[in-house]
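Field reference: sequence -> structure
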Amino acid sequence: MNLTDKVAVITGGAGGIGSALARRFAAEGASAVVVADLDADAARAVADGIGPVGHAAALDVADSEQVRALVDETERRYGRIDLFCANAGVATGQGIEAPDADWDRAWRVNVLAHVYAARAALPAMLRRGQGHLLLTCSAAGVLTAVGDAPYTATKHAAVGFAEWLAVTYRDQGILVSALCPQGVDTPMLADGLAVGHLAARVIAASGAVLTPDQVADATIAGLAEERFLILPHPEVADYARRRAEDPDGWQAGLRKLIRRLRA
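Structure field:
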């Protein structure tokens, strides 16, 4: 996809990867960039910052009716949606002890929000025979987020859903991409480090933390090449191969890393 004159919607757009995507889409010549976020004021600041193509919207991605209303309003205002970026996500930093409420929130934001986006955006895309869905799934969706069981489980589900969408709708003109970065310098990582979450410490120890702008660069390249898996950290592909070829050895390496960090 070339972003010139395209209409894009970004959820979780008020900061981190979402705001970097908004800036980059505007720079690439998008005709409209809808920045949607639970934090309406922050979304408005990002939209204002990218100029006249920016438009802000308050949105709880875990509410299917709000997602549908956002899609309807965007289509009414701009005539179409060329690219829907389901980017919002949450981490917990917890294991099986995470309360049911935290598991439910992770499920609704990290998985069901993608379902709601596809339900709302696909009908018009299918009528036009074109459109692109970009789901931010995380490298945790193809590997493991050590120290965060809800995040790992839901991101794996997100990648699985993205692949299902790609297989089901590609022949009808719909492109689907799963954006799977590893460590990114975002408030989510900073908050995890501040409270000592093991998952955040593993990412920091890897020494491969990218800026949101670097992730946006990789996203533009992946969209242009119509790739399903967009991996801003190319080493994730090697990790995934090693994990598939030798799951026991891969797990042994992770356990060793955990022991070192806990010591």
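Note: The radius of gyration is 18 Å.
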